[in-house]
Amino acid sequence: xxxHPPWLPAPENSASRLEIPFVTAPILCYVTDRKLLAxxxxxTNTAILETIRKAIAAGVDWVQIREKDMAAGELLTLAQxxxxxxxxxxxxxxxxxxxxxxxxxxxxxxxxxxxxxGRESAPVREVVRWCRKGNAPREFMVGxxxxxxxxxxxxxxxxxxxxIFGPIxxxxxxxxxxxxxxxxxxxxACAALKIxxxxxxxxxxxxxxxxxxxxxxxxxxxxMFQDAQDADKLKRTIESLRGDPGIGSKR
Length: 251
Description:
Mean pLDDT is 85; it is low at 1-15. The protein has a single domain (27-242), classed as Alpha-Beta Barrel (TIM Barrel). The protein is an alpha/beta fold. The protein is built from nine helices and eight strands.
C-alpha cells in the first residue's frame, strides 16, 4: 500500500497476535523507577504515583509500570490508580495506555492496557496464546524488551504488539544488558518489523529526534520524564518532541 508506514499493522490483521497500536504520531512512554526519585521524595509508592500523574497530565502517551520488587498488592493498587489517572477527563488526550511490567495477573486485574515482558518473563508466545483464548480484552497489548534485531523479529513472530528496543545509548539502568546497540541497529529493527518499535536507553531531548528519524514509532525513557523539575517543564519537553515537522511522517 502506497504511503503505508512500516510501523503500522497491515490491513489484514493476523489472528496470531493481539491488538497492534495504531501509530500516527510519536509514542512517548514513561518507564517508572521509584528508586531513582529524589531522596527527599522517599521513593515511596505515593511519590511514584504522583510522578505518573504528572507525566500523564503533561502529555505522555504510555506509562510502563516497572517496579519489579513491589509487592503484588501494592503493585495492583498503583496500577489501578495509574489507570484511573489515564482515564481522567482532564487528560489532554482521551485515553492513555498503562502497561505493567512482567505481572500479567496484575495487569488484567487492574484493567491495564497491557503487559510488558522482559528476558526473564514468561514466553511471549505463551502469554499471547493465553490472552487470545478470551482471558484478556481484544485490545490488550503484549510488549517485549529486545536487545537485537533477531530478538525483535522473534517477538513479532510470537505475536507481540510492540517492542521496546535498546539500549540505544549508554545509560546506567541498561548497562547490565551490554554495550549500547546504537542508531544503526535501531534503524534495522524498525525496517524489519511491522509492529511499533520504541527506542530506549540513554534517550534525552537532544537525541530523541535521532531515534525517531531512524524509524522508531516512539521513545521510552525513565529519567527524561521522571527527572523533570515540574509539570510545566515536562510539558514543554513533550511539546518540543511533538513539534518537530520531520517527526511523525518518517516514510
